Amino acid sequence: MKVKLISFVFSETGFRRNRIILTMMLAGITNGMVMLIINDVSKDFNEINLRNILLFALCIGAFVFCRKYSEYHAQSGVQQAISNKHLTLIDKLRKSELVHYEKIGKMSIITNITDNSQIIYESTRLMVHSMTASIMLLFSFGYIAYLSLAAFAMCVVILGIGIVIYKHGQKDIIRLYHEFQEKDQLFFESLNHFLDGFKEIKINLKRSDDIYQNEFSRNIDDSLVLKFQSEKKVVSNMVFGQTMFFLLMAGIVFLLPQIDDVESETMMSITAIVLFISGAIGLLIESIPMIIKADMALDNLVHLETKLDESKEPDQHACSELYKDFKELSLDELHYDYVNAQGQAMFGIGPMHFALKRGEITFIVGGNGSGKTTLLKNLTGLYSPKSGHIKVDNKIVEVSNYNDFRSLFSIVLTDFHLFDKLYGLDHLDDNKVNELLKKLQVDHKTRFENGRFTNLDLSTGQRKRIALIVALLEDKPVVVFDEVAADQDPEFRDFYYHDILPELKKANKMVLVVSHDDRYFDVADTLIKLEYGKIVKLEGNGDKQHD
Ligand SMILES: Nc1ncnc2c1ncn2[C@@H]1O[C@H](COP(=O)(O)OP(=O)(O)OP(=O)(O)O)[C@@H](O)[C@H]1O
Predict the structure, then answer these.
(1) 274 and 420 share one domain
(2) Ligand 1 centre and the CA of 410: distance in Å?
(3) 386-414 pLDDT per residue, tens
(4) Which residues cross the membrane (predicted)?
(5) 252 and 385, same structural domain?
(6) How many angstroms is it from 378 CA to the middle of ligand 1?
């Protein structure tokens, strides 16, 4: 059986790897030596001499040192390996396509990374103990072979049969663990809904009871059944292991004298050794289920990493401000559709064909679900089109230039997120931010000090204003606002349409706005109306520029 946990633990120990292996072996050997000395001395009290006392002390000292060294360095190795794995996963995550991230899901990523890492970390100590115990067992069996080959053969046969049957039992346990994991996944999905919909649950007792009884209780009951079944198997397997050990004892005590001509003193020694190693065998039997869980946890992390590798964007050229001075952005027969898990196309947009200029305001309008946000995600390079192209100054934007292309945009989508710090904005002048807070009338709620907003516990409308401020601070050539005015009071809405947007236009920015405010449609230079993913109206400059 290949234990993946071992290679994972050693993957980050570098030059200490050989030392850890050596000290683990020495800890096992010195443990065995202690047993030998005790055995020798208890057989013959003349053996109580300075040499044996010193040897005993030396073995204990070496054991303590080796055990501490191997355990400490293995633990720090695995901690390092886990931290590196976290960084690798986050790095791969940020390079994967948005559409794949949306499919994998936030909760699945969080639980995968946190739960599995915890299991791996906790199992490492057990694994080190088990490896030390295995060395001690090998040492002890070597000594048994030295005392009596027949006793050694008996150990090999009985333990061999035990291992085969034990491994067979493990297969069922692994299957049950997998089923349990799937149930656990369902539980976390429900938990995700429960936490996201906490307000809706709080307000509606019937809904709250329904989700509690029919979702959580049922899921937990199903999980418990599997957990009980697997625990039952684990316990049976452990008891079986212990029984095999008793069988070994019985073989040594009752059978060995019949088949081998062993003296009673040797019999005593062999019995003492077998009793001595019972602790190590017990430890091994108890560790195996945990090590299997750790291997499954590693598989889960590898599975997540493989998914992220598959969803990786094509390699990007180094950012070169390729499009910095662009003038026009156009869609050339762009088509995009969402596909379900079976690969069938669901909702789609396109084909779309229009051109937008810098220094102009474009409104994208249409009913709910008409495809406005999907269009924006394509336009900004968050999704890559299934067919057709995005062009900048009439040149196709290759996917390898998407990083460069996306750097043109500041976006505030409907599900925007406010970061506690303004990442990526270096050398920001606090005064400049505070002036904007004043201009957008949120300065009485929050200030910008030492690179952070002092308060982000704000109303939805206020949070949107902060998101708007961040977008303005980024000072990108294209700004994209998805229903930003939706939660604003009439005065601010007026300010947004009649001041903020025209100011951005004056600053030669391309302004893309999703809006349902038909009272302000006259602000737009171009108006694109969507229905069922198709352009049903294209008015203004965008139409004139259409080639
Ligand atoms: N990740 C997704 N997977 C599958 N279908 C999706 C996904 N996101 C959106 N859709 C579907 O695409 C359609 C268009 O959604 P989109 O968010 O683009 O509409 P919208 O015009 O922005 O709507 P609204 O005005 O309500 O925000 C919807 O029918 C929606 O069900």
Answers:
(1) no
(2) 21
(3) 999 999 999 999 988 998 999 999 999 99
(4) 20-38, 50-66, 126-143, 149-166, 234-255, 267-285
(5) no
(6) 13
